[in-house]
Amino acid sequence: MQAYKKVGLVAATVGTALLTTSLIAYPKAAQQRQQRADVIIVPGHPATRTGQETPVLKSVLDQAVKLYRRGWASYILVSGGAIHTPAVEADVMAQGLIQRGIPRAAIIRERHARHTGENFALAQPLLADLQLTRAIIVTVPWHMRKASFYARKYSIRHTISVAPAPRQVTEWQQAKYYATTYAKMLLQIPLAYEFKTKK
């Protein structure tokens, strides 16, 4: 019994150390506080295989639309390729925004990103071309530190607006999303902190 307790204590200590490392390595940006920006950025979230919105994706889009309608930004940039399903995430998100009444001219699509880092690496030149310098990033709670880190890495000035977890996502599922995301963040620390190479 003592051996099990020791193993549990070691596991808890290691888990705490790993979590702390992730939190330090990926600092969180300030949350949006009624401060106008130029653009709302929605990094990719998977759609269904038939190109429909999942509950998580719906929550993120609803939050982006709410900010847009309140006048906090003039554009919404959606980013994501066909990674988890055959559907291009940016196209699904753009269609969802149009169905919610967002003008096509206000939607910027980035259709090739394969992961969070590329969401912001590929968005940055699009923002520069349009001279959009301040962003509000809309994402779910377990993704905000990772999104904020990569926005900062690619010199995108931003705040975060957290979309609420949908009712369909249980607390247990949220815990799994946090654990999975933070584990990936920990493994990606060496890659995340690589300096951008000059072309």
TrEMBL record:
This is YdcF family protein. It comes from Loigolactobacillus jiayinensis. The keyword Ribosomal protein does not apply. Residues 38-174 form the DUF218 domain. Residues 1-25 form the signal peptide. It comes from the Bacteria. The keyword Transcription regulation does not apply. Keywords: Signal. Coiled coil: none annotated.
